[in-house]
Amino acid sequence: MTILRDLEKLAGWHRISIIFLLSGITGNLASAIFLPYRAEVGPAGSQFGLLACLFVELFQSWQILEKPWKAFLNLFGIVLFLFVCGLLPWIDNIAHIFGFLSGLLLSFAFLPYITFGTVDKYRKRVMIIVSLLVFVGLFASLVVWLYVYPINWHWIEYLTCLPFTSKFCEKYDLDQVLH
Question: What is the residue range of 150's domain?
Fold first, then answer.
């Protein structure tokens, strides 16, 4: 909760709410495509979208920080820990991955950026346009995969529940038949 408050103070609640909501929608959409009939808990995609905001903020202020590698390793450790937790049942790593990707793209587009000169302003504008276009392409391809071309990759289930024992991921699917 303190991370979200600090991000809101840094970038404004309008920008952070856009990143939070769109990352969550993208993560849940990807989860519905790749892992249908699975119930998941928590706002995984949204939280990873905010973690991506922290990475983007770190990269944009890399030269200003005294020990940027320390901050990077701290953030990377948090993401790695949460991804390993996603190997347990009911926690969705697909939403984590796609929420992080969309949060990364949206953060490059919406977070404030310190510019030095006209070349830097031009580079930022190009980065905003490219990030938004890639995000729209990612979201559109997920919508197409959901409605037009269903995906049935069984190996992807191991990204979200690794069967440490023979019954570890049992009873994880929901009934596909409505009663």
Answer: 1-160
What's this model's pTM, rounded to 2 decimal places? 0.87
The answer as to whether 176 is a domain residue is no
Write out the two tokens for 164: 């440490």
Could you read off the pLDDT tens digit of each residue along the chain, which spans 179 residues?
567 788 888 888 899 999 999 999 999 999 888 887 777 777 888 999 999 999 999 998 888 889 999 999 999 999 999 988 888 887 889 999 999 999 999 999 998 877 777 888 888 899 999 999 999 999 999 999 888 877 777 777 778 877 777 777 766 555 555 55
Gyration radius (Cα) of the chain, Å: 18
Judge whether 151 lies within some domain.
yes
Q: How far apart are CA 160 and CA 132, in angstroms?
A: 28
Q: Is residue 172 part of a domain?
A: no
Specify which residues 76 forms β-bridges with.
Answer: none
Whether residue 91 lies inside any domain: the answer is yes
DSSP secondary structure of 6-40: HHHHHH-HHHHHHHHHHHHHHHHHHHHHHSTTB--
CA distances from 44 to 47, 82, 167 (A): 5, 10, 24
